[in-house]
Amino acid sequence: MKITVAVATPLHIAASSGVVKIAEVMVDKNPHLPNVYDAMKPSPVLVAVAHKRRDMASFLFSNTNFEALNSYEQIELLSATISSDYYDIALDILTKKPELAMARPAVFGTRL
């Protein structure tokens, strides 16, 4: 289930801070939070990856419904994890959806 909102959620702020304990408390209270974001803004897990918050990214990825992300968001997350040297998360993404290895974003070549 993906819910959209007009502004960054508190989980986005926690994701950028990298304080996993805050995110854990929030997600324990509402397990749907990792999938609550505006379609014009990145998902919380992508925010964590973009801010180089490895532990937060791992936590959020394990709590995000990956299949609820659209194909573009999945490719962006794969690209960001590879660019950030988060190969463990990138491997998890490719395990869930191997065809992303051959996906071609409009600007770039294939990810692998």
Structure description:
InterPro entries: Ankyrin_rpt-contain_sf (IPR036770). With 112 residues, this protein is mainly alpha-helical. It has a single domain, classed as Ankyrin repeat-containing domain (Serine Threonine Protein Phosphatase 5, Tetratricopeptide repeat). It has helices spanning 10-17, 20-29, 44-50, 54-63, 71-83, 87-96. α1 runs parallel beside α3 (44-50) and α2 packs parallel to α4 (54-63). The radius of gyration is 13 Å and the shape is globular. The mean pLDDT is 87.
Give the topology.
Elements: H1 10-17, H2 20-29, H3 44-50, H4 54-63, H5 71-83, H6 87-96
Features:
mainly alpha, Serine Threonine Protein Phosphatase 5, Tetratricopeptide repeat, 6 helices, globular, Ankyrin_rpt-contain_sf
Q: What is the structural class?
A: mainly alpha
What's the tally of helices? 6
Strand-residue proportion: under 5%
CATH architecture: Alpha Horseshoe
Kindly state the mean pLDDT as a whole number?
87
N- and C-termini, Cα separation = 29 Å
Tell me, briefly, the overall form.
Answer: globular
Q: Quick one: CATH superfamily?
A: Ankyrin repeat-containing domain
Alpha-carbon Rg, integer: 13 Å
- What's the CATH topology label? Serine Threonine Protein Phosphatase 5, Tetratricopeptide repeat
* Helix proportion: 40-55%
Biggest pleated sheet: none
The strand count comes to 0
State the name of the first-level CATH class.
Mainly Alpha
Number of domains: 1
Low-confidence residue ranges? none
H-E order: HHHHHH
